[in-house]
Write a structure and sequence with these properties.
Length: 442
């Protein structure tokens, strides 16, 4: 089989060789130089470098127009390449997910509309274009979330007190989203929705021919939005109830996810699950690693087998099969005021704890990534912890975050009492706050 991989995710996060027999198949990796460099030196494959100045589809089309060839599969495991992969399949006549099928899990308006029509609760929502035409199109009065139609990692997400406040800020080019404030035409790529309070859950697993093969449930500690603005983020597994499993299956069916991995997020509003969004991909941070610790299933490998062979390597456990309950945590670096890692105060007592599965911390002086990343080895600190019950795992991560907060607040208080110090020192010691946001407790 000839396989084309649109290679955007660093190899160690996917480990393609665990799911694709590179001796049996001819595999071509198409990507920018930095990502091609993450492929193992001895891996039997072809590496094709793309410039990275245009979209993946455009550059793949240009390459294959000059050197025509056919592929039996076009694979993309990054959500940023899912639509390009669908367009490339159509152009090449290769089987797989179509553009319309993929759009449902990339366009948040189309996605929520499909879920609403399936009878599941979603936040009230409208396209940003509709809001700017008439604020009455937003059929709610309170807090309002502005977000990109196809974004990730809570980038360009802002919360306003009302739909009207959002419309005024956008009209006056002071929304806090650089792209919107610079280009009025960008409104076509954004939506607004009702702010729904509650904890955010995520469900992860695999689906084949519309059947959920394996699934775990997790609850976030912190939020992706807060992480984007400088706060640590974590999540921990807890048991999947029959009702939650049925809800997840219904949400996946509503958006037509029938094959591959899924990362499904919901708001627990009282006793009701409110659909937030879903991706036909694995989750970020250490979702893949904790899933494998809990179930023995490596999600990317089994997804690749589903995409190539239509079936998993074996009968997969329905949900957690191990006695310990896992959770992951990650600290952001992109909002730090320094360019080199200087450590995280207050957390020394957690190093070496017997509950730790792994603790990955940048060495002192290492450069800080200036972009949002949940990845171990790129974030200042990331790790996995496990206890005999999920409540202990939750409490351990919460205590780690609280210790870091307390140390930063103490340092900030001491500096505030020193009027002789420059304001930059105060900013460096103070806990990071939410920027451009109001009451972001979701």
């Amino acid at each position: 089989m000839n396989i084309l991989v649109l290679h955007r995710v660093p190899y160690p996060r996917i480990e393609y060789a665990r799911g694709i027999d590179h001796d049996r198949h001819d595999v071509t990796y198409f990507g920018v130089p930095d990502l091609l460099a993450t492929l193992p030196a001895g891996l039997r494959c072809e590496r094709v470098q793309r410039p990275g100045r245009a979209g993946t589809f455009d550059e793949a089309q240009a390459w294959l127009s000059q050197a025509p060839r056919s592929f039996d599969r076009v694979i993309a495991l990054s959500e940023y390449d899912l639509l390009d992969a669908a367009k490339l399949r159509a152009w090449l006549g290769t089987p797989g997910a179509t553009f319309d099928e993929v759009r449902l899990v990339r366009d948040k308006v189309a996605m929520k509309d499909a879920v609403r029509k399936a009878g599941l609760r979603v936040p009230k929502f409208v396209s940003l274009g509709a809001l700017m035409a008439s604020t009455a199109s937003a059929q709610w009065l309170g807090r309002t979330v502005l977000k990109p139609l196809s974004g990730a990692s809570s980038e360009d997400v802002v919360i306003f007190e009302t739909p009207e406040a959002a419309a005024v800020a956008i009209r006056e080019r002071r929304s806090g989203v650089a792209r919107l404030d610079a280009d009025a035409q960008a409104i076509d790529d954004y939506e607004v929705e009702e702010f729904v309070t509650g904890d955010i859950l995520h469900f992860d697993g695999l689906v084949s021919n519309g059947e959920v093969l394996t699934i775990t449930a997790s609850r976030y500690i912190g939020t992706c939005l807060a992480f984007a603005n400088g706060r640590p983020l974590g999540s921990y597994h807890f048991p999947v109830s029959t009702q939650a499993g049925a809800w997840a299956a219904s949400a996946l069916a509503a958006v037509g996810i029938e094959q591959g991995s899924f990362h499904l997020e919901a708001i627990e509003h009282g006793k009701t699950l409110v659909f937030l969004e879903v991706g036909n991909r694995v989750g970020g941070a250490d979702v893949v690693a904790t899933f494998e610790y809990a179930t023995g299933v490596h999600l990317p490998s089994e997804e690749l087998r589903l995409l190539l062979d239509g079936r998993p390597s074996r009968a997969l456990p329905r949900t957690q099969a191990q006695p310990r309950w896992h959770g992951w945590f990650v600290f952001p670096g992109h909002t730090l005021d320094t360019d080199a890692y200087e450590g995280i105060a207050g957390i020394d007592a957690f190093r070496g704890d017997p509950a730790l599965v792994r603790w990955i911390e940048l060495p002192a002086g290492a450069p800080i990534k200036r972009r949002i990343t949940y990845s171990a080895h790129e974030a200042p600190l990331a790790g996995i912890v496990a206890h005999e019950n999920w409540e202990q795992t939750r409490d351990w991560i919460s205590a780690l975050f609280a210790a870091g907060d307390a140390a930063r607040e103490t340092a900030a208080s001491r500096l505030r009492s020193r009027p002789d110090l420059p304001h930059a020192a105060l900013r460096h010691a103070a806990p990071h706050r939410e920027m451009h946001l109001v009451n972001t407790d979701r």
